[in-house]
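Feature request disguised as a bug report, sorry. It would help if multi-protein outputs had a clear separator. Right now it looks like this:
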Amino acid sequence: MKRKNTLVASLTIACLVGVWAAASAEDVKIDGKDYRKISVAEYRDKMKGGWIGQIAGVCWGAPTEFRYQNRIIPEEELPKWTPDMINNAFGQDDLYVEMTFLRTMEEHGLDVSIRQAGIDFANSEYPLWHANVCGRKNLRRGIAPPNSSRPEFSKCADDIDYQIESDFSGLISPGVPNNAILMGEKFGRLMNYGDGMYAGQFIGAMYAEAFFETDVVKIIERALEAIPAECQYAEMVRDVLQWKKENPDDFVACWKKIGEKYHDNPEYRKWSCSGPTSDFNIDVKINGAYVLVGLLYGNGDLDETIKISTRCGQDSDCNPSSAGGVLFTTLGFSALPPRFSEKLDETKVFDHTAYNFPALLDVCESLATQAIEKEGGFVREENGERYYYIPRIPLKPSVLTSCANPVDKPVEGDEGRFTPEELSQLKFREMDDDEALDKYFAGFRASHMGPDMKPGYKLEFRGRKNVFETHPESREVAAVLSRKYKASKDSALHMVVSHHVAGDFIGDYELIVKIDGNEALKRVVSKDTVGEDGWAQIDVDLSDYAGKEVLVEILNQPNGWSWEAAYFDSIWFTP
């Protein structure tokens, strides 16, 4: 039966559940098999709309990102959309990371191995954060995927990362959500595990359905079939759907329900690097909930969907990007108001990628054709126009697991690491923490390091190479670098140190040096106590301990519990 014959019923529901413009695709039966039929031109139009939705969402929300933690953004404090904002997209990690994955498949085929995907991701040169940077660091250390994302190797595996860069997986999977699931197993497993990966599979499956379905609730419910029903992420999706029914016109009431369970309850924040109590919450479940709030309460309005998702706070550029992308896909580019695309510079190449906007659309169309054919579909020309025939196939979710309770074990032995041949393909290699401390930091050892802000060896920070970051275990327990040292009458300890800075997020801390338990130095390291380059050299005289072997401890002491990381460019003794 053709879908156009069912649109009257769908439109009748529009006022109740938030349905937007109808699709023109058809359901057809060939040799007893059910197919979805959509013209290649319509697919491309909707896929193009999806990219514009992503871009608009991230550009609109970018000025608010993580500036509103555990609180709603007042509407009057939202940025106002202007058409030229669209060109702020070219340096966004929400976009250039997923284009890395597209490039991998363009060069190596849709069935590229996860190990090759890992090599390409390890060779990326752009800035990353959270699960992405942990996964890439593991890959550069020779830990092959899927081990690179496992909770044994990453404390960020439930962070938002693959959710924000999974949109590509649905945009190349029209009507084939199993391909979006496989993309999660291949690319999502480079940096995320459990709920962190399921989130991206869910987002991808929403896009896959948005090419054919116009009812937001049905899109969400269909995407739920793509992930294990027992996982916490699926629990969150069901909760938000229920809370929308209970509060049909009050997104703030729904937002409060989300916060009570997915922010305040530590059982739902067990494996996010932000920890179980911080107002800063980058866990994938609460941010995924904010994507759904925008879709459910936006009622098909382009501006309201993005604005509501943004107003929920936390990762308030990534979340409206996903919500906008799904919504705009249902409409297609040709139905969008010009204000979202008229200023887009289609000749400009996205940072760290090979793609301008037309090239991006071309590679997605090529990969979508491959995905459809792999699923048993085909392309047929009719009356001078090309059509996709896409089979309806049951979804095959990934195996249920979680970061807090993994059901499988890491790949052991040589299979768990890159081979010498694979290592030779890596442009960047990273040392583990102890190796770096031995080589660059006088053989100190780190202890009492909390998971926040991903402490450890860094290739670069604030213009310096080979930096070591510490972060306190808690508000009460300082991070410590320590070692024994035999002092002489001319001995001194030297450090070059800095504090955290990322945009408007500027931290400070107390740097304390103890010698055999005696405090030898106490100094605040902040933007006011470092040099113009952001670094300061600190020296501690050890001559009073001449002839003695002493315990030297360098403490990163919390000082207000806001971006408390300490950064060491170097540590050395003289003589």
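(second protein starts here, but nothing in the output says so)
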Amino acid sequence: MDICAQLQENIANALHTLYNIDTPAKEVVIQATKKEFEGDYTWVVFPFVKKARKAPEALANEVGAAVKEQMPGIDNYNVVKGFLNFSVANDYWVHFVDEHCREERYGMKNAAADAKPVVVEYSSPNTNKPLHLGHIRNNLLGWAVSELLDANGMNVKRVNLVNDRGIHICKSMLAWQRYGNGETPASSGMKGDHLVGKYYVEFDKHYKEEVSQLMSEGRTEEEAKQQAPLMQEAQRMLKLWEEGDAEVRELWKTMNGWVYEGFDETYRKLGVGFDKVYYESNTYLLGKELVQKGLDMGVLFRKEDGSVWCDLTADGLDQKLLLRKDGTSVYMTQDLGTALLRHNDFGADRLIYVVGNEQDYHFKVLKLILGKLGFDWADQVYHLSYGMVELPNGKMKSREGTVVDADDLIAEMEQDAAEMCREKGKLDDMSETEQQHLFHILALGALKYFILKVDPTKNMLFNPAESIDFNGNTGPFIQYTHARIRSIVRKAEASQIKLEIGEGSLALTAKEREVIKSLHDLPDVVGQAAAAHSPAMIANYAYDLAKNFNSFYQDTPILREENTALKQFRVVLCAMVANALKNTMKILGIEVPERM
């Protein structure tokens, strides 16, 4: 039992013994003592003053004395008004480091053998364009949340749903037919996803020209959008696709194949992957079966034009379209089918969808319709809603070609990382291969950390220049701290310094204690971050730990310490910090270098 749990239990016992107040230990709130006061942990007495019939300071002093008598790990206590501050004994901290320093996964849990899977869906790209900055946040968040749940002892399955059919796909296909002149990735030298995205932009350009022409002839904007020949042709192509037209299906397979090769390359660069990939072209048919089931149950209804809807007005929403009048499906159709297929595939405990907050309404509807269709696991659906990513010059639009492609961004950041390393002289004795690997992991570390340190629910502004810096709250700062610590440990090993803690008491500095307290907090942080589905809590923990270590490193001799026992302890502490940084950054999908 750690010191916080011990404090909770002993304070609860003291309240019962002294004042006959019965309160569960878990309801005794312990928090870190503010830096301006002496102590490590604080208990706020005010909630118990009335029941104890004591003045706040008197209550705090009596409970403090009782707890100190029962806990050898508590060195002292002090009272500031209604705040009882406890100071933890050096021996406790030394014992804590000795007990956990050899745990490779300290702070992490292993999944139980019979744990039901938690399915996390992320990425979910459309096959009409390459992955861009918005997709990067989705992929990085999905991967990090999966790693975080895994670190909290859950059996995680990562899945991807590729939106490989629909009107947007037909737009790229039609534009390639009209304007492509047989261009291929091989003939153009372009990645397949970039090539297909080029024709999605091309469709939009010509479509706008047609809309403008029709409006000049007297149509309203809405009429012009519906009557534009290109849009009507794209809709006909979608109908032919759903009817299984051989020519349309063959073109669809070819162009999607180009995109998949491009996606896989980008996923490898980002360091993300999946246990299973679903395709909308396979799941929408199951969705149509569920729509028919809903009609048979009377849960859904068909309008006069043949379209199928679900009336959710009694649930405070509106009517939701599930099949168009021509019988073609919509996103909700395939999401119903995918949810059922995924639940059946994994027998999942939870289905987590990592999708932007513009789809909040969509997932409310999905849960409601699944429930109305009789699926008792509908409440297992959880939408991890995250904010949008913007650039300093505003929002991105794929159809207008104003996006920042993921591949281009990674390449630019690798170049920036290379320039930064050369300027700061971080490449001594490194081979060309080692240098290129360092540039890649620094670039990805900067990108991932900058995005993941922001609370997922918030919109964010991504500034590449701010993300790559060896100073401040950045990935490279933490990566460099890890490399610095590993250098210390290697020097210690070369000097035959034992990485073990001897017997006897050690005098710890205040900054040394801060580092140890940060390590002590790691299991709780992992648990809280997993409960909140927030990798940002892990990112900011890693930064605080690195910052505390650097403050300790600047003021405290390690290899130059004359006391052998203290020197050995500090080297062991360094190694434990490096391991904690490595593990927490791994949750974020970030690799840390051994040297720089």
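Even a blank line would do. Unrelated, but nice: The first strand starts at residue 30 and ends at 32.
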